[in-house]
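Researcher: Before we compare anything, I want clean individual predictions. No alignment, no superposition, just each chain on its own. First chain goes here; please echo the sequence and then give the structure tokens.
Model: Echoing the first chain and its structure:
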Amino acid sequence: MTRVRVDAVMLEARAAMLAKRSIKASSKRAGIDLAIACMDLTTLEGKDTPEKVRGLCARGIAPAPGAPSVAAICVYPNLVATAAAALARSSVKVASVATAFPSGLSPLATKLRETVDAVAAGADEIDMVIDRGLFLAGEHGRVHDEIVAVKSACGPASLKVILEVGELGSYEAIRRACDIALAAGADFVKTATGKLPISSTPPIALLMCESIRDHAHRTGREAGLKLAGGIRSTKSALGYLALVNETLGAAWLAPGRFRIGASSLLDDLLMQRAKDASGNYSAAVYVATA
């Protein structure tokens, strides 16, 4: 696999330009609804309960009157069956983290068993995390082979490969990890677990879009992108939509090829959606986050 050199200055400058593209008022509502439709609502906490998951599923199916359903609900493997039952009569998919999320540090046999069990319980999608220790030690072939094995274990389920970009150390390392995941058969490449401060930024999103684009040109296989963590405002979400559109094209602006894993974002999207419809915020005081 050819190593791609990354010009950090040019990458950051282009990402900043793309992320600041304005969306006309007439298109803002459509952009908000697209962001909602591409969202993975997630609960990945030690205190998760079946009741909490059922409530999240209900919200994902009908976030607000007239709003689209989200793309998926993402839970731990032991709650997949609960989510599958709650979503059975909806278009919302069941996603499950697996492979020793969020560390990725367990034997391959354990990772494969967890994947197989999650799919058997009803998962439509598996979010696996790579072993960053192996990657940083230069064991790129082993990282590739683990992804291949997990992809095989997924059976009919699609596979999102989480890079955990905040632990990889450089843009070149992130690009290398992304290229490896795509070569190994990832259906989506995903920025992060959401458990670290550094997750999704415009330069990282652009870098991964370029990897997806180059892979599609080389092989004809069009993989998807999932951005997770650090996206909290409607303005940021719309900026990422513009970045993806400019780099990969309009075909990627759909749940089958683009996801946002930022559950706290939904509140702001719905607030801005209501404001767009009525001209007023639903609260007396509203301060948007960055």
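Researcher: Okay. Second chain, same rules.
Model: Second chain and its structure:
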Amino acid sequence: MHSAADRAVKAVPLAAASEDKFYGGKCVSLGVALRAGLPAPDGYALPVALVSAIVGGDESAAAEVKALFEKLAPAMAVRSSAVGEDSDDASFAGLHLSVLNVMDADSMMAAIADVHASAHTAEALAYRQKMGVAGEPAIAVVLQQQILSEVAGVMFTQNPLNGASERYIEASWGLGEAIVAGLVVPDSFRLANDGGIIQQSAGEKDIKLVATADGLTAEVEVEADKIESLCLNAQQLQQLHDLAAKCEAVYGEKIDIEWAFHAGSLYLLQCMSITR
């Protein structure tokens, strides 16, 4: 058990992250998932004060965090978790940085600094002002095992296009950031609340984003026969439907889920409220 003083300044396992004021929304949401037994990759939560200390040059803070890399090796993701970053009205997705496929401790420390800096860009600060988010950005960080997905995407438990009560899924080959970055036209699927397939449409997935051995990500051409073929089968769609139901039981209705398939297993990468 971590004391309040420790929780404010020490890295904790993601499953122990429970206070937004220390860890931000993403860490807390992942902590909820892990405590509920949902299939989220494990990792650590770095509180706001610890991230600030690292960026400010505190060598003891940096040494403490650097030692965590070996527990997540060989590859990890470094993600932002800002206090107040996501609510029913605002989402900072795409503004605050995620760094994927981090493969050594020095790169992890550089990624933490880059994530912190991403909250202070002109675009991020302008969005804060537009959405009425007061004060300076307070950035915590998620250190998480990297899922080297064969297929990944997003799933909404209410259709964001028309508000219908159904599952709406977008999917593509490789890492899901290809969809977030607009690099492909993803496949789309609509599922009824009982899991039945209402509609499925193939996109144009001519590239995929993959992790490389040098700790980077790369855009790779997709095999010709896969560009316009569906990347999810009926069994996988059923697994996603089941995951949506489990997430709704934990988080409530109208949620946005990031997910990934790797080696036959489905992983929950993130879960948040659908922003209006």
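Researcher: What stands out in the second chain?
Model: Residues 151-273 form a domain with the D-amino Acid Aminotransferase; Chain A, domain 1 fold (CATH 3.30.470.20). Additionally, The two ends are 37 Å apart (CA to CA).
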